Amino acid sequence: MPYKKSYVGFIVWLIIISILCMIPCFLPIEDDDLKLRLVYNIGSLGIAALTWIIYKTGFIYWYNGISYFEALRVGAARRQAYARKHFSRFRFFAMAFLIFSIIAQLLHGSYWIDTVVFTVGILLTAVSTIRIAL
């Protein structure tokens, strides 16, 4: 299959993740901490899903700093290896945050702790991908 430049999948993902993040606001749940935890988990799992989509399609030029022509030039095997490393890191964070959220909900933890853990965790995960070489 030829490697073609397209952002359709990214736009579809962006629309879907935006809609999914709004759903908890309309759920008949009284617990605001739970609603926020759901939004954060949708976000982290959604980002992991995006990295999986990139891994499966090879569209690594969706990442900042990689042009379509650079991606085309390195070949499918290197694109897949590069994308797999990103996916592994974001998948790990999403699963770790999900487990953390469940524990925080069971222990009635404050949403502020979730906010800090989510923000710091997603930033550190993203920063950790800077050293991944194409």
Task: Describe the protein.
With 134 residues, the chain is an all-alpha fold. The protein has 5 helices and no strands. The model has no long low-confidence stretch (mean pLDDT 96).
Q: What percent of residues are in strands?
A: under 5%
Rg calculated over all Cα atoms = 17 Å
According to DSSP, the number of beta strands is 0
Low-confidence sequence ranges: none
Question: Portion of residues in helices?
Answer: over 70%
Structural class: mainly alpha
Overall mean confidence score, pLDDT: 96
In whole angstroms, the N-to-C terminal distance is 21 Å
Shape: elongated
Number of helices: 5
The largest pleated sheet is described as: none
Topology as a string of helices (H) and strands (E): HHHHH
Key terms:
134 residues, mainly alpha
Quick take:
The protein is mainly α.
What secondary-structure arrangement, pairings included, does this model have?
Blueprint: H1 8-22, H2 32-57, H3 68-74, H4 76-106, H5 111-128
Helix pairs in contact: 1-2, 2-4, 2-5, 4-5
